[in-house]
Amino acid sequence: MTGPAPRARTEILAGGEWHAPAGGDTIAVVNPSDGVTMGAIARGGVVDIDRAVEAARRAADGAWGRLPAAERGRLLSRLSRAVGERAEELALAEAADTGKPLRQARADIAALARYFEFYGGAADKVHGETLPYLDGYTVMTFREPFGVTGHIIPWNYPAQIFGRSVGAALAMGNACVVKPAEDASLSTLLLGELAIAAGLPPGALNIVPGYGEEAGAALAAHPGIDHISFTGSPEVGTLVQQAAGKHHRPVTLELGGKSPQLVFADADQEAALPFILGGIVQNAGQTCSAGSRLLVEDRIYDTFVGKVADRFAALRVGASDMDLDVGPVINRRQKERVESYLALARRDGLKILAEGTLAPNVPPGGFYVKPTLIGEVPPDHRLAQEEIFGPVLCAIRFRDEAEAIAIANGTPYGLVAGVWTRDGARQMRLARALKSGQVFINNFGAGGGVELPFGGVKRSGHGREKGFEALYHFSALKTVAIRHG
Ligand code: NAD
């Protein structure tokens, strides 16, 4: 162990109470910083998902569904304050569970509290419209909760993704069934405790940890779910959409990306550098909106990429509680996956321009990968096309604006893009030309900003989370037409 083990519990939460999973099995909780097992969580399955969905339905049709919007908002605000009061405990659990440096975990928990604050405040501010129609009619719209929403959460930002997805769904009056990732469930389970203590009615929030193929698949295919939101890999996203499609249930998919940062010759290079680094190094590159492609204009390519290389070479990698620049990746499989891309780069003769260093005292069993900068990557190479989900940045050279746009748009993904230029007209042209859910000009949010709608186009998925927009995506619009003469 690299620090005291965070508290893990081996139960599922359904109907406001903790239950042993029906199968009686558990899943080991492994600390990515040292590879040591530090506890266990429940291995939920079909029966547990049934139980959670039934409890959610009772809540949606009962006390939770009838609660006035302002009261729902107050409960979410209370949960936000509870997260703030227990922030350090949550951050320690998140850091130990995912391997992320402690200050990143603290930032994630601050964002989690902010999600509940934002959605607590928004709960009673969503309203319908009256629509002009024929003489003698009054037509209005209502935004109603779906009822029961399913949430399949990945391991990279468990607390933040819980906040953005469950926060918005609860604000609209849905009752939620959450399946956290088998690799990182601890903060979600703690949140279950906080939600009960904050006074959420039984069944408004239900949590079933377990494997994706078991609990996740059961949730996606469940006929009692009215909407499902999934964040994770495109392959599993397809399975979730197909399963939900059998019952014609709407799906929100957030499936990652290969997000470009475009640096033009007139850019403020010093301002860009920390965002270029942060965009890929944060969370060891395991960020759906990571800026994993660095597109640089020919005229400044050598000098600018040289500056990025200097910063990469200075990066230090270590255990989550060492709180260095980069932590381990989540598990052995992910480490091998990232390393296979680095091996491919070497095999194909790509230029490894810089690597970070492992701190001398990193625990031997941890899943560490050195952050790596690779230069002159052909835009159609697999390293420039596929989501690596590790701290690997591919630098690509471009000649002019048209080529930059073509390269930026030339992957199957479209989640986030960053543009660095002082030319105002070019800023506007790029903002319009880039096929991406978010475009950042002279900054790079890497998904940041609770207020900003977030989601992709193309293989990055569909639907929007975060901001007010998410509230529309977690509600069904009803139109009522009255003929009164
Ligand atoms: P994954 O897609 O397998 O897992 C994400 C979530 O889906 C987890 O909760 C998992 O238990 C669940 N799941 C898995 N199989 C399922 C199924 N058949 N039905 C329903 N739910 C299922 O992701 P992973 O295996 O943990 O990571 C693989 C790759 O996915 C990564 O290398 C990365 O490229 C990508 N990924 C992307 C994001 C993102 O934020 N976009 C997050 C995590 C992983």
Q: How big is the Rg?
A: 23 Å
How many independent structural domains? 2
- In DSSP terms (H or I, runs of 4 or more residues), the helix count works out at 16
Head-to-tail CA distance between termini: 75 Å
Major sheet size, sense and barrel closure = 7 strands, mixed
Helix content: 25-40%
Q: CATH topology of the largest domain, what is it called?
A: Aldehyde Dehydrogenase, Chain A, domain 1
- Indicate the proportion of strand residues: 15-25%
Mean pLDDT: 97
Shape: globular
| Sheet/helix structural class | alpha/beta
Given this structure, which CATH class of the largest domain is correct? Alpha Beta
Low-confidence stretches: none
Query: In which order are the strands of the major sheet placed?
Result: 15-17-18-13-12-19-20
Query: What is the assigned CATH homologous superfamily of the largest domain?
Result: Aldehyde Dehydrogenase, Chain A, domain 1
Name the hetero compounds present.
nicotinamide-adenine-dinucleotide
**How many DSSP-defined strands?**
22
What do you see in this structure?
Strand 3 and strand 4 (36-42) form a beta hairpin. Helix content is 39%, strand content 21%. The model has no long low-confidence stretch (mean pLDDT 97). It has helices at 46-61, 63-66, 69-85, 87-98, 102-122, 158-171, 186-198, 212-220, 234-245, 269-281, 298-313, 332-347, 382-385, 401-409, 424-433, 469-473; strands at residues 12-14, 17-19, 26-31, 36-42, 130-131, 137-145, 148-152, 175-179, 205-207, 227-231, 251-254, 260-263, 293-297, 316-317, 351-355, 357-358, 372-375, 392-398, 416-420, 438-441, 461-462, 475-483. By secondary structure, the protein is an alpha/beta fold. It binds nicotinamide-adenine-dinucleotide. Residues 152-156, 179, 181-182, 212-213, 216-217, 220, 231-233, 236, 239-240, 254-256, 288, 337, 387, 389 line the site of nicotinamide-adenine-dinucleotide (NAD). The site of nicotinamide-adenine-dinucleotide has 26 residues, from helix 8 and helix 9.
